[in-house]
Amino acid sequence: MKISLAPLQGYTDWVFRQAYEKCIGGVDEFYTPFLVLQNSGEIRTSHKREVEPFLERNNRLVPQFLSGSVEEFQFFETYLSDLGYEKMNWNLGCPFPMVTGKKKGSGLLPYPEKIKDILERGYSGKIDLSIKMRLGLEDKSEILSVLDVMKNFNIDEIIVHPRIGKQMYKGSADRDYFQQIQEGFNKVIGFNGDIETLDDFENLNAQLPNLNHVMIGRGVLKDYWLPAKIKGIEIPSADIRKKVLRKMYDEIFSTYTSFLSGDTQILQKMKPFWEYFSSHFENERKVYKGIKKSGGLKKYHEAVSFAFQQNVKE
Ligand SMILES: Cc1cc2nc3c(=O)[nH]c(=O)nc-3n(C[C@H](O)[C@H](O)[C@H](O)COP(=O)(O)O)c2cc1C
């Protein structure tokens, strides 16, 4: 069973992934948050950082991109293969109206003929292609025609987050519908969505015994040892976990301060990090509240000290 870390824009950037790999481990494959091509025809520096410095340090990184045209698709395949990547991931899941309105992300799912055209004329096969997608934009049956198209291409892997775009993150991942589409498809599909505990994983695995890839996002951010639990690896004691969390935290903080400047920039990165990191501690709400309301680095450091005075959850 492959366990991968889902891409979460603003949370699973290279700083996080590198620290996680160094301090925790247990994730088999990492995905970058989506890269986009700007109107100027260039990629933002912050997006380049996701793929360019990481190359020698992690060969299990799969860069992800958004593309709604043949030209954009070709751009990313060339860019990523020139960097030496062996895999790339096309995002057909992003639900945000700014993206779907441009017929990108899950906004492409109602247009299987457009997906076919992009694959036919855009994908040259230089690197393996995987696709991460939702069930549809407006309706879950949209995926049926999309999978029909995909059957005819050499796609390395398909990962489905079984929600529709307009649902955003409401409701829950539709495992029954996932099972239905899996039964009608000729390849094993990776599963993503709402796996937050070992129990969640075990229930899923009981329902889908052929599963060979589970992608987890928020569940890993809230419990760094979830992949190890799934793999049956022994979990360190609470005391040791706290030390590891401290190491992870220090690693992240020092990496950000090495290239960002000023309280505002640093806090803009650290506050979202604590949104999930605080889940590891008792009194997590109080912990997060302290971090969230800290106005400058001095107050922020006090809130961090408070956090590490708490016990780590069992
Ligand atoms: C804040 C946030 C940012 C996300 N950014 C991306 C992204 O860049 N690319 C992508 O494919 N999915 C993105 N997702 C979706 C996640 O990868 C994943 O599909 C979703 O969170 C469900 O999985 P989970 O329940 O394990 O978190 C994002 C989700 C959240 C909450």
Automatic annotation (TrEMBL):
Catalytic residues at 94
What does the record give as EC number?
A: 1.3.1.-
* Pfam families the UniProt entry points to: Dus (PF01207)
* Limits of the DUS-like FMN-binding domain: 5-289
Can you tell me which residues bind FMN?
64, 132, 161, 217-218
| Keyword vocabulary terms for this entry | Flavoprotein, FMN, Nucleotide-binding, Oxidoreductase, tRNA processing
Which Gene Ontology MF annotations are present?
A: flavin adenine dinucleotide binding; RNA binding; tRNA dihydrouridine synthase activity
Q: Which SUPFAM superfamilies match?
A: FMN-linked oxidoreductases
Q: Which InterPro entries match?
A: Aldolase_TIM, DUS-like_FMN-bd, DUS_fam
Q: Which residues form a coiled coil?
A: none
The cofactors required by this protein are: FMN
The family assignment reads: Belongs to the dus family.
Biological function: Catalyzes the synthesis of 5,6-dihydrouridine (D), a modified base found in the D-loop of most tRNAs, via the reduction of the C5-C6 double bond in target uridines.
State what protein this is by name.
Answer: tRNA-dihydrouridine synthase
Q: Which source organism?
A: Labilibaculum euxinus
